[in-house]
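Following up on my earlier thread - several people asked me to post the actual chain instead of describing it. Fair enough. Here it is, all 255 residues.
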Amino acid sequence: MVFSLTTNGVLNDSSLSELIEIKPEETAISLDGAEKTHDYLRGNGTHIKTLRSIDRLLNNGCNVTINSLLSGKTSEKDIAYLLNLSKKAGIEVSFFHTRPIGRGADLPGVQINLPYLISVNNYISLLRKEDPIVKLRIGSPTLKGKVGELLSFPTSDGFYRLNIMSDGSIYAGGCVPYVSKESRDMYNLGNIKKENYSILDIWNNSRRLKQQRGWLKNLRKRCNCCEQERCPTFTTEMEVYAEQFGENPFCIKKQ
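Reply from S.P.:
Thanks for posting it. Predicted structure:
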């Protein structure tokens, strides 16, 4: 079992000290580009606080990676900024696209469409080929080559990992509870702070998790004949979104 922690990096000294002591196998920190873009998305003053957290964690031997959001505010300057950070600090950068959920649903100018997402992913892939020192990851790590050449599982959510939220609630996909109140209730697998069971109990015995795994496998079958290579659009939360609101706006088969 591997323990990975995801944070916005806006941490006080006490929280940083505790995190350094715990030393998760991976600490993924949200950084969405240069200061202007990041602060627009995350709040004024958060960029400098996030950089300070990254520096302190790295200086204390923690394995830090970056999660970066591709949005309507992302510029080539932002991507170049992240490339330089990756080269300078040896940090892997993972890119994710904006979803119409959570805070992103209300911020003006952040939503993107499928053609834009594909073009940006192609641009990042080109940069990665041109500079192999840069550690970049796009799309889902469970996808290799064409969609029809999938590994055994349709997604990492619920198959390779579970996501524990700050309040102790557990989901197969970490963004699922932000889709709607209904999704928070419908897809919740329990709460490790409030109930007496282990993560392994849920992994091996949860009937709801088994149902979600079956649902995701069936959804993935529709992608087997899709022409889009390294599809960046199949995410658990967007399939939940489609179930509740009628469509996944990023699915190429719906275009």
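DSSP finds nine helices and seven strands in the chain. That should answer part of your original question.
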